Amino acid sequence: MRITSAFLAATALCVPAYAQDVTIKVGTVVSGDHPENVGAREFERLVEERSDGEIDVRVFTDSQLGNQREMVEQLRSGTLEMTWVTTGFFGSWEPVLGTLEIGYLFDDREHAFRAFDGELGDEVANLVENHGVELLGYYEAGMRHLTNSVRAVEGPDDLQGLKIRTPRATYHLKTLELMGANATPMAFNELYTAMEQGVVDGQENPLSNIYNARFSEVNDYLSLTGHLHLTHMVLYSEDLWGDLSPEHQEIVRQAVLDSAQVQRDKVAEDDANLLSELEEQGMEVTEPDREAFAEQVAPLRDEAVAEFGDDAQKLLDLVDAARSGS
Q1: In angstroms, rounded to a whole number, what is the distance separating the alpha carbons of residues 19 and 65?
Q2: What are the Cα distances from residue 4, in Å, to 8, 10, 15, 16?
Q3: Which compartments does it reside in (predicted)?
Q4: Are strands 182-185 and 163-166 parallel, antiparallel or unpaired?
């Protein structure tokens, strides 16, 4: 049979779009050696290996593709495939999720893992996927501690008058206010300069962020408040998810789950090793009265239920159900 160019053209039109090789762009706001990007590189390796090179993953670090808010909007508009943000940060689109960034809500990282790898994670996915994204899994954002350039912090009184940067997440910000700080929302990529110039006195982040962003250069005091353990939602653009074949979707989804363990292991490694590194860089470390801070922020649970009703209570109940021994 003679195959005409018209026949070939018609045949090509019948090939599904997702049969072609695809590129997945992953955007993050932190440095290349940060635990988030350790996870991203493992995701890249797994996807490219398991797809036999049919999927090309490109990781863009250091806010190259924009800040967190801009990248979420890119996902929702279908111009970026993948990024991650904390549950509370996504409260700009699904406000009740801010409940999960109430201070001292999780006992430790294992408590958070049980919650998000279980029923709480399923409930969060149900809420998030109403907003133009697919939720593929959870990375660890880590346990957050305070740093500042003014004085050592031992308890709530020491935070009075200090301007402390927080992410733009309502209950995260309220937590710092009740702890005693003058909480100031700001994008992460603006933070170093803001502290260097004295726009804010300090900030709060996991040890990995404090170390990799070189905050010891502009802050002298580190207080191990452990006030928040945050979780990143690994998000994919709903519009672009359909461009992947079912086989590629499964590869991507499983790679997120598998890379999450590598990413969490890196967070644990950093927590074990970086404290001494930061002390060697000149930071004065204190272990403040966590119970005093926890008492200060306790009213936020009732405030969230008053604001969001049964929706917030359900999230809090799922957090409590995941406690050890529950």
Answers
A1: 27
A2: 6, 10, 17, 21
A3: Periplasm
A4: parallel
- The C-alpha atoms of residue 275 and residue 293 are separated, in whole angstroms, by 21
Q: Which amino acid is at 78?
A: G
| pLDDT value, residue 16 | 47
Pairwise CA distance, residues 170 & 166, whole Å: 10
Q: Measuring CA to CA, which residue among 95, 285, 102 is closest to residue 179?
A: 102
Torsion sign across C-alpha atoms 178, 181, 182, 184: negative
pTM flag (> 0.70): yes
Q: Give the closest residue to 172 by CA, choosing from 153, 188, 150.
A: 188
Question: Using CA atoms, how far apart are residues 20 and 176, in angstroms rounded to an integer?
Answer: 49
Residue 192's nearest CA partner among 216, 173, 208 is: 216
Q: How far apart are the first and last CA of the chain?
A: 71
C-alpha Rg value of the chain to the nearest Å: 21
22-321 fold = D-Maltodextrin-Binding Protein; domain 2 (3.40.190)
For 177, residues 6+ apart whose C-beta sits below 8 A from its C-beta are 183
Give phi and psi for 113, each to the nearest 5.
Answer: -60, -45
Residue pLDDT, tens place only, 189-239: 999 999 999 999 999 999 999 999 999 999 999 999 999 999 999 999 999
Amino acid, res. 318 = L
Task: Please state the φ and ψ torsions of residue 171, each to the nearest 5 degrees.
Answer: -80, -20
Q: Where are the beta strands (DSSP E) in the chain?
A: 22-27, 55-60, 82-86, 133-148, 163-166, 182-185, 202-205, 221-237, 284-286
Residues 5-18 pLDDT 10s: 444 444 444 444 44
Residues 6+ apart with CB under 8 A from 161: 182
Residue type, 323: R
* Burial 158-169, CB ≥16 within 10 A → b, else e: bbeebbbbbbbb
